[in-house]
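Protein in question quoted for reference:
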Amino acid sequence: MNRNIPVTHRAQANGIELAYDSFGNPADPALLLIMGLGTQMIAWDEAFCEQLAGRGLRVIRFDNRDIGQSTWLTAAGVPDVGKLLMQALAGQPVPAGSVPYTLADMAADAVGLLDALGVARAHIVGASMGGAIGQEIALRHGERVHTLVSIMSTTGEPGLPPPTPDALAILMTPTPTDRSAYVERFRRVMKVLRAGDHADEEALDAQRAERAFERGVNPAGYARQLAAIIASGGRRERLRALRTPTLVIHGDRDPLVPIDCGTDVARSVPAARMVTIDGMGHALPRRTWQPIVEAIAEHVRNA
C-alpha cells in the first residue's frame, strides 16, 4: 500500500471542523473527492489521488462529518435506523426534522470546505453516499461546481433494485469498537462489496482496517449518516433540471447499489454520460483505477 501520505489539515466549515489533505499543485483546478457511508477519506487511496493529481488537478479529500478525524456530532444522539428504514420501505416519508442532519447539510459541509480553501469552483467526485452528496452540491450550489462525477451512487428513488441480502446485512450490522473485531468485520465487508476474486486487495485489508481504526471509528456517526440518506429521499425530478456536466461511473457487479441505480442517475441528468466498469462491485480496487482515472480526466478536459 502506498504510504506517501500528505499532512492532514483541519478547516472550519459549516459550523464544524473537517479533516482534509490534498495532492498536486495548489494552482491547478480543484477536484474534491467525497467518500461514502461510514467511510473515511483514506478510502481514496493515496496512489489513486496521485494519479488524478498527475493529470493536472489539485486533488482534495476529506472526512465527512461524524467519521474519522472530522467533527463527531455525539450530542445529536443515535437515530433508530431500523425504524426509519422500515418507514421508507413502506413508502412513508421520513421527515428531515426527524434526523440529526441530511445530505443537504453534508453538501453544505463540502461547500464550506471549498470556502475555507479559497476555492471558488471545483470538480466534484463522489462515491456511493458521496455521489449523492455530490448531486446535492450540484443541485443546491451549482455555481460552485465545474463538473460532477457520481460513482456507484443512485438517485435515491424508491422502486430501484435493492442491495443483495449479503450487502443489506452489512449495511445494517453494527460496527464493532473492539480493534480485532473491527478488523475482522472490515475484511468480511470488503469481500462482499468487491463481489469477486480480489486476493491482491484482501491481502491489504487488515492494514487498511488498522489504519482506519487508529484514525477513529464512530458507530453512532455511521447511524446518523445512514439516517441522513434515508431522510433525504429521492432526487430524480430535481436532477432532470441539472445542467452541470455529469459523468456516472458504475460497476456491473455492484451488490450494494445495483447498476440500475447508476443508470437511473445517468438517465435523469440531461446529457449525462455513463461509464460501466466490468467486474467492479461496490469498491475501488486497484484494477479499476486506470479506467476510472481516465474517465474522470477526460470528463474534466471536455468540460
Residues 9-302 form a domain with the Rossmann fold fold (CATH 3.40.50.1820). The mean pLDDT is 96.
